[in-house]
Specification:
single chain, 168 residues, alpha+beta, Aminopeptidase, seven-stranded mixed beta sheet, 6 helices, 36% helix, 35% strand, globular
Length: 168
């Protein structure tokens, strides 16, 4: 497995992986039934949405406040993570996803560790995760993150748990 910075040539693969993960039964089950049709429509095949996503990610890759990394196995992108430095002492993890066919191989932990390398001593790292996503919450707690209440908004009806950690 290789963890490396994402490049523009990776973005279509990242978009496809994002669709695959977000539409997998393990992930859609985290979304309340009343919101699933709306949620699934967001990730339906849509060339305009793909182009918009690629444009957004190109900007993030060029922006020094962002770190976007991919996990690669046999030249195939099997995971990605992104975070943004919001201030001199605050970093927000904006997403970490691993192809379900490759879970359980340490890829999420490796991506997460790479995101932590983006920080400095004294930083506060924060993020929100779907509150019933026990797989992700377990990974974050394993890396020393603690619960910090619930978010003010939801994700397609799913309650969001805030987590954070002070980097020493």
């Amino acid at each position: 497995m290789i963890i490396r910075p994402a490049t523009n040539s990776d973005l279509k693969s990242i978009f496809q992986l994002s669709r695959k993960v977000h539409l997998s039964p393990s992930y859609t089950e985290l979304i309340p039934k009343a919101y699933r049709l709306e949620y699934e429509a967001k990730f339906a095949i849509n060339p305009a949405a793909e182009a918009e996503y690629v444009t957004l990610m190109e900007k993030r890759i060029r922006d020094d406040t962002w770190q976007v990394v991919v996990a690669e196995i046999d030249a195939r992108i099997v995971g990605y993570a992104q975070s943004q430095r919001l201030s001199p002492t605050k970093v927000r993890l904006k997403g970490l996803f691993v192809d379900y066919d490759f879970q359980g191989r340490g890829i999420g932990g490796a991506l997460f560790a790479e995101q932590i390398r983006f920080t400095r001593p004294g930083d506060i790292v924060e993020f929100e995760v779907i509150a019933n996503n026990q797989t992700a919450i377990g990974l974050y707690r394993k890396h020393g993150f603690s619960d910090d209440g619930y978010g003010e908004s939801d994700y397609y009806g799913a309650r969001m748990l805030k987590m954070k950690k002070a980097i020493s």
